[in-house]
Task: structure prediction
Amino acid sequence: MIKKWTLGLITALLISTQVGAQQAYVEGVDYKVISPVVKTSHPDKVVVTEMFWYGCPHCFRFEPYIEHWEKSIPDGVVFEPVPSVLNPSWMNHARAFHTFKLMGVQKQVHKDLFDAIHIKRQRLDTLDQLAEFAVDQGLDEKLFRDSFASFPVDSQLRKSTQLEKRYGHNGVPAIIINGKYLASGSMAGTNDRLIKIIDYLVASELAN
Result:
């Protein structure tokens, strides 16, 4: 009788724990629903989009968390960092991101650009300053400058501007899960908790 009671208690506790985990994150408190849903770049996958700004200290502190998370994302999930243009003063950093991407070196210089701004305290706000950074990275200055003012980069910036209006976020870092959900550091409270909310929403999308 005692064994049956104990087994029943354990089972009840397990069920309670599972239900608690499912209800751990609350819509409107821990994340927001984006309506209408924004079409993603990979309709057949779960797309996680990080909106960030290189000059943002919160984004800089979140970067190691998202880098670690990216290394273990499950099959069927795509991660896309996208520079925010919510503020006009962020435009050159966003343009630099797309320039480096066009040049095929964005992943190579991404962390270095963050570090140059937040650790080395370099002012990298103007085209000339960013071009000097590119040269320090061993890149061709003329190619950087030409790419910086190119049509493909302009197109990406226009696309980002339109998407951000549809996402409805008002700060960075902001994480968009599959064009349906918005999570942020301000809602999560901590970077570790933000990662857990991302995992929760990704798992929900993968299960659909």
